[in-house]
Every structure is written in C-alpha cells, then in structure tokens.
Amino acid sequence: NISIALARRGKKVLQIGCDPKHDSTFTLTGFLIPTIIDTLQMKDYHYEDVWPEDVIHKGYSGVDCVEAGGPPAGAGCGGYVVGETVKLLKESNAFYEYDIILFDVLGDVACGGFAAPLNYADYCIIITDNGFDALFAANRIAASVREKSQTHPLRLAGLVGNRTSDRDLIDKYV
C-alpha cells in the first residue's frame, strides 16, 4: 500500500521483498517473480552477467519489484541473500534510479545481512501492528538503526501502525 501510494504521488519506487512466500512482491506483480538467488544460480553466480532487467519487474501503479528470495529452510542464511541483493543492486547502480526504495525485511531477524539495507538508507520507517510480536520485531529494527547510525547518516523516522485501530501497545512502546 505504501509503495502504490508513493508511486501515485509521482515517486519512482522500488520495493524489495525477502520472503520465500513472495508476499511482498506477488501482490504488486500478480506472479512469482524470479528471485535474486534463482537468477544468480542461472548465471552460475557471475554477477557481471546479471542485468537490472533480469531481477527488476514492473508491478501495479508502476512500482518496480525485486525479490531477494532465500535458501531452503536449514540450508543457508537468508541474511546473506539480502546482503547479496543489496550488493548486486548497488553494483548495477539500481539504487540511484529511484526516489524511494522500500525493503520489506523480517524484523525479528536483525542480523548483519538483514540490516544491510540500512547502510544505504537515510531513514527507516517501521511498519507494525499493535501486537507484542510485531513490536518486539520493531524494537530489534530500532536497535539495528541505533547501531548503524553510529557509522552512517541514518535516522529512525517513526512507526506506522498498519491495519490496526488499537494503539495501546504502540503508544506504550513509543
């Protein structure tokens, strides 16, 4: 919803998903786009052979979409895949083509790989709901922002309560 709203306001938007279910990008494209990891496998991990059009797909309202993907459960590190996605997009200069880049990450896993997008961000906005688990994840992301802000010009811009009319836990957290 945020990507579409920003695109409708004239912004060039890239949404990057990192969930094996593709739930972030599927809703925008209407199909399961090839993941970064799938594309790299097809190119025998020759990064120089991967072009932006191989991994960036047009979605609803002109939102461009990338899906990082990930290894099968128990077979590797999802954070590594996120880090490689950031590396690939940076090397292809794709990061500089957009007004806004949204990275839909798993908030409760704030390892170095999942926190890699924060190295290139000016602001972090956390989308959450009023539940304990979501706010626990928000706290992990806020801790990552605090850590990264010591070496990068990064600021936490705030929290957005998504799909909730209740705010008691969000208000307590804030």
From TrEMBL:
The lineage of its organism: Eukaryota, Viridiplantae, Streptophyta, Embryophyta, Tracheophyta. Its cofactor is [4Fe-4S] cluster. One of its GO terms (biological process) is chlorophyll biosynthetic process. InterPro entries: NifH/chlL_CS, NifH/frxC, P-loop_NTPase. This is Protochlorophyllide reductase ATP-binding subunit. Belongs to the NifH/BchL/ChlL family. Keywords: ATP-binding, Chlorophyll biosynthesis, Chloroplast, Iron, Iron-sulfur, Metal-binding, Nucleotide-binding, Plastid. Pfam families: Fer4_NifH. PANTHER family: LIGHT-INDEPENDENT PROTOCHLOROPHYLLIDE REDUCTASE IRON-SULFUR ATP-BINDING PROTEIN (PTHR42864:SF2). GO terms for molecular function: ATP binding; iron-sulfur cluster binding; metal ion binding; oxidoreductase activity. It comes from Tryonia myriophylla.
